Amino acid sequence: MTGRYPRIQFHRVIDGEQVPCIQLSLSICFYMRRSHREVIPAVMDALDVYRSAIGPHALAWYPGENGDWQELDGAGWEFNRRKMLHPRGANICLRDTPHLTTDYEFRYYGRELTQPCLDDQTGPTCAVAFWLPTGYLEAQGPEQVWKLALQLGSALPFNSGHAGLSFYCHESLSGITDPLRPLCSRYPGVDMPTMESIPMELGTRIKGVYWMTFLGAPVLDKLGGTAGLRARLHSAGTHVEDLSANRGVARLGRWPEAGDMEHGYTLPAYRELAQVIEPWLYRAPHSPWSGFSDEEVYNWEHRFIKTT
């Protein structure tokens, strides 16, 4: 594994104890420009797929009605099932620990959309994220993660999605972005999490370029389908697969890579895909991360587009 991605974990002192607050993880995310009541059956099916892959007891905690973490027992599952089936939307978080960082986590943000339209390039979406530790990748191998991401994507009516390396942290935790600023500049292949803001703004745009970049309507149609996308990508190791129903995925290499700007590892395959899908890339209207200026966010979003 040496050279593909760094070992990253930051701690902070809480009540006199060193507590992990940032770690390098894997995330698999999908965005659906459809209403909650339309997508929730597929989301619940995808949750079953995820639990089957990580073990039925890996998700063990959830935030209760007062926000305190509760053990996810039978009553907890029924509580969350009722929340997911609420007709107007749901905000669900299930994880393996109640601590600041966790290895396995399922997050869903669902809402009813007023006449959702694929022509709306920005606006609210329903979003779902599945987290894995890098240890899962190393133990199971990249093909298992690829297979899991395809299973999850096949179960969901996504417009876009991605899978790859990501910093895991609480986005709203005070001062959390201070150690992330140099890291995100150095390692372009590692995502910055924005699950607290991007579901309200993404629409049908593409969040960025990743180890796996999932494309659906309308962007994939405008590229000429998977055949059109495949014809534009020439980097060794890049693979484009058709998922049917005008959805597809581009995989950039067998393993996810972080890159390293300090050593000239600029991830040319990622840059190539970014050039192809640039017209549809999402740009945040304002900084989603406390402590980052709008200019810093702009530079990060354009890291694969900039020529220097």
SSE ordering:
EEHEEHEEEHHEHEHHEEHH
The helix count comes to 9
Main beta sheet strand tally, sense and closure: 9 strands, antiparallel
Low-confidence stretches: none
Query: Outline, from the CA principal axes?
Result: globular
Structural class category: alpha+beta
Distance between the termini: 28 Å
Number of domains: 1
Task: Kindly list the characteristics that best describe this protein.
29% helix, alpha+beta, 9 helices, single chain, two-stranded antiparallel ribbon, 308 residues, 11 strands
Describe the fold and architecture.
- Helices cover 29% and strands 25% of the residues.
- It has 308 residues and is α+β, with helices and mostly antiparallel strands.
- The protein has one domain.
- β10 and β11 form a beta hairpin.
- α1 packs antiparallel against α4 (142-155) and α3 packs across α4.
Secondary-structure blueprint:
Layout: E1 9-14, E2 17-32, H1 36-54, E3 61-63, E4 69-71, H2 74-84, E5 89-95, E6 105-111, E7 126-133, H3 134-140, H4 142-155, E8 160-168, H5 180-186, E9 212-215, H6 219-222, H7 225-232, E10 238-244, E11 247-252, H8 268-277, H9 294-301
Antiparallel strand pairs: 1-2, 2-7, 2-8, 3-4, 5-6, 6-7, 8-9, 9-11, 10-11
What is this structure, in a nutshell?
With 308 residues, the chain is of the alpha+beta class. It has one domain.
